[in-house]
Amino acid sequence: RDGTLIPVRLLLSETRIEGQRKFIGFLQDLREWHQTREQLNAAAHQLEFTTRDFQALTYSLSHDIRTPLRAIDGFSALLGEDYGDRLDETGHDYLRRIRAASQRMGEMIDDARRLYHYRQNRMEPTQVNLSELAGHILASLQSEYPRRHIEWHTQPALFVYGDRRMLHELLYALLDNAVKFTEPRDPARITFGARQDGDRLVYFVRDNGVGFESRYAGKLFGTFERLHGDEFEGTGMGLAHAQRIVELHNGEIHAESRPGEGATIWFTLRLE
Q1: Are 172 and 234 in contact (CB under 8 A)?
Q2: pLDDT band at 212 (very low <50, low <70, confident <90, very high)
Q3: Same domain, 56 and 140
Q4: Which residues have a Cβ under 8 Å from the Cβ of 245 and sit 6 or more positions away?
Q5: What is the mean pLDDT of residues 190-209?
Q6: What phi and psi values does residue 37 have, to the nearest 5 degrees?
Q7: Across the chain, which distance is largest between two alpha carbons, in Å?
Q8: Domains in the chain, number
Q9: What values do phi and psi take at 66, rounded to 5?
Q10: 91 and 77, same structural domain?
Q11: Residues 114 and 71 in one domain
Q12: Other CB atoms closer than 10 Å to residue 150's CB: what's the count?
């Protein structure tokens, strides 16, 4: 009555009543639908801007910030080589700390970029033998720690449908994490396997490492989270990577542990 235009949809249905052709019409009010569409369009535009900003940030991280980091590391090395005889042990220790911090910052930048690119890269699903992947990774990790006494156990013939490259990175993150946190153990025991839970397989990586308080399990998969501080090496991104890969495969991941009793990382992969 006030002249406002209302978007509607007219639905007509033909029928016969007492032999006569009749039409029944329905009017559907589309105002709510239009409002929802406008909100979705606005959200899509905002997401596009956010994505562009994040792309610019990752570019800056990988190029602009790396330049001063390389300078810090390089000039610290030159300082030690050219003027090392003028420094006492404390001075050399400061230089080592500077170089270690700059190199660790570079590793954190690389890990942050990788986390973003998981969302951008197209997946190439195929049949993957997880047991075979785990075997290759374990052999590689053993060569990295030749003096460690590590007992490996891998359940055979565990196949799954997924992106082979991503699943390799997933298992590497979980197994490398287990190796790091079993460093005080002799022998260290690390197991990769699966168990049936209803109609699905639940995979796990279990170790006898230092463990952690169960109340911190939720923080475990956060970016740059390090529950044990600097006691163990790493950037705190390994399990964040693992979580992203599991999510991209429509799965779930969680951890169980007690201090001093090791940890178990459980995950599912349900990519159709």
Answers
A1: no
A2: confident
A3: no
A4: 118, 166, 167, 169, 170
A5: 92
A6: -65, -40
A7: 111
A8: 3
A9: -65, -30
A10: yes
A11: yes
A12: 18
Closest C-alpha among 78, 80, 73, 79 to residue 109: 73
Taken as a whole, the chain contains a residue count of 272
β-partners of residue 10 are 27
Domain that includes residue 37, residue range: 1-62
Contact 143, 152 (CB under 8 A): no
The pTM of the full predicted model, rounded to 2 decimals, is: 0.62
pLDDT (0 to 100) of residue 228: 46
In a domain, 272, yes or no: no
Cis bond leading into 184, ω under 30°? no
**H or E element in which residue 85 lies:** none
- The reply to whether 158 and 240 lie within a common domain is yes
Residue 74 maps to a domain: yes
Contact, 194 vs 129, CB < 8 A?
no
Query: Which of 191, 182, 109 shows the shortest CA–CA distance to 158?
Result: 191
Query: What's the token pair of residue 201?
Result: 């397989």
Nearest alpha-carbon partner for 267 in 177, 140, 188: 177
Same domain, 111 and 130: no
If asked whether residues 27 and 93 sit together in one domain, one would say: no
Is 190 in the same domain as 96? Answer: no
Burial of 243 (0-12, 13-18, 19+ CB in 10 A): buried
> Residues 218-229, buried b or exposed e (16+ Cβ, 10 A)?
eebbebeebbee
Q: For 116-168, write each residue's pLDDT tens digit.
A: 665 556 778 899 999 999 999 998 888 888 888 999 999 999 999 998 988 99
Q: Is 224 left (phi over 0), alpha (psi -120 to 50) or beta?
A: left
